[in-house]
Design brief:
Keywords: Cell membrane, Membrane, Transmembrane, Transmembrane helix, Transport. It is found in: Cell membrane. It comes from Paenibacillus solisilvae. Belongs to the binding-protein-dependent transport system permease family. About 80% of the residues lie in helices and about 0% in strands. By secondary structure, the chain is mainly α. It has one domain: MetI-like fold (Orthogonal Bundle). Helix 1 runs antiparallel to helix 7 and helix 4 crosses helix 6. The N and C termini lie far apart (about 45 Å).
Amino acid sequence: MDFNAFSPDNVRFILEGFLLTLKVAFSSIILSFVLGAIVGTIRYMKVPVLSPVLGILVEILRNLPLLLIIFFTRFALPEYGIHLGPVYASIIALTLFEGAMISEIVRSGLISIDKGQIEAARSSGLSYLRTLWHIVLPQGLRRMVPPLVSQFISLLKDTSLAVVIALPELMNHSKIVIGQNSNYALPILLFAAILYFTVNYALSLLAKRLETRMV
């Protein structure tokens, strides 16, 4: 293993890429969660016209490769006058794709709540929306935590796909450093793996802590 790969300049360059990876990932996590929560709740409520339309869009996005969506936001949207840099194109692509996935997690979590509790709440005088807010959502959220965190971890790893549109993230910078010397491949890739693992493992621990508190 060539430890010359870890020169101060190379390490700084790799960490700059990793910082952008985190910025893109966490921006996408927040936006995709908001989008997924709204879409999933609307589909659960079976709003006429809107729910079926959203259902079709979700199925389309879920069954397309993320790489295709990234290419679309970066190279197809400019044909319609929408010009996005690599960072914003990546965030939008990840938000749309992961938002579709999260919407299904949210919808499944809400559906899993016993209908008897909903009927009891309605019979006690609570409106449909108050029942959803006070009874269904709190319990559904507990069941959503593990799959949501798993999806967020996947999102963080999926940021590496944006290397194809020259997003200057971790893998892009790793590739540039390796290009200096092929002997740098093993140490640099191991370093990148450790960075990914550290953040993803921290997310897993956070999820377990949240589950414990919510029980």
